[in-house]
Amino acid sequence: MDITQAAGLIQSFENGSLTKQIGKIERELVDKNPGQINKSLSDLSILPAILDAALTLKRTAGQINVIIHTLGIVLSLPYILEKDEVVQALSLGAGNTGKPFDLETDRRVAEYKFIHWRGGTESIRKNQLFKDFFLLSEFDTSKKKYLYVLGKDLPIKFLKGDRAINSVMSRNKNVDMLFHELYGDRFSRVHEYYQYRQNDVELVDLLEVLPPEIGRLFD
Q1: What is the pTM assigned to this prediction?
Q2: Fewest CB atoms within 10 Å of the CB: 13, 141, 175, 208?
Q3: What is the pLDDT of residue 200?
Q4: Are 179 and 138 in contact (CB under 8 A)?
């Protein structure tokens, strides 16, 4: 099933309001036996093809994040690079590409995070942000180091916060091992390490760098 077919089936199933459609199904199936349920499903035009469509779109959605990451990086390059700066390596796809960072030029190394922070718990993105900040900080290079984000107030608030290092590292054992090999128990809180390394990595708000016609696409 292609994406167009899948989207059409899902749109038809939603029938203008997914909430109302689900409520209708819930009411329709109450007090029904298997035979009656089969008839109701047929009357409601609920077919395995709709589940297939939903799974197709779910698999596609995973690739959408990769597309956003790829296009976000390449479209930003004309606006972040200096006039004579030259790209040496890019890591645009998902997974382990064998390259340490999203971007390396003759003058900088950089990571990108195309995620809007909402101010909630957001543990996973905080963990990822700290990992990127740590790996950039410890990378042995004379080049400038950048971490590009969408809005930097909340990321900086987290980096200046009191979250425990062990908590931030709990789901990335390799990075946790590296951190403790380098520092042992010297740092126990995120703000302690950030204060130590804050001048080594520049956090840049892409929304302040990109032209309005591109930046507004991330709103």
Answers
A1: 0.82
A2: 208
A3: 97
A4: no
Q: State whether the Cα torsion 58-60-61-65 is positive or negative.
A: positive
**Torsion sign (Cα): 92, 93, 97, 101:** positive
DSSP code string of the chain: --HHHHHHHHHHHHTT-HHHHHHHHHHHHTT--HHHHHHHHHHTT--HHHHHHHHHHHHHHHHHHHHHHHHHHHHHHHHHS-TT--EEEE--SSS--S-SSSEEESSEEEEEEEEE--SS--HHHHHHHHHHHHHHHH---SSEEEEEEE-SHHHHHHHTS--BHHHHTTT-HHHHHHHHHHHTTS--BHHHHHHHHTTTSEEEEGGGTS-HHHHGGG-
pLDDT computed for residue 97 by the predictor: 64
Amino acid code (one letter) for 189: R
Structure-block tokens of residue 144: 């400038």
Quote the CA–CA distance of 26 and 12 in Å, as a whole number: 18
Query: Cα(199)–Cα(105) distance, rounded to whole angstroms?
Result: 20
Measured at the alpha carbon of residue 72, what is the angle toward residues 69 and 74, in degrees to the nearest 5?
Answer: 105
Provide the pLDDT for residue 133. 97
CB 147 within 8 A of CB 136: yes
pLDDT for 121 equals 81
| Low pLDDT (below 70) residues in the chain | 94-97
Strand order in the sheet with 144-150: 87-90, 103-105, 108-116, 144-150, 202-205
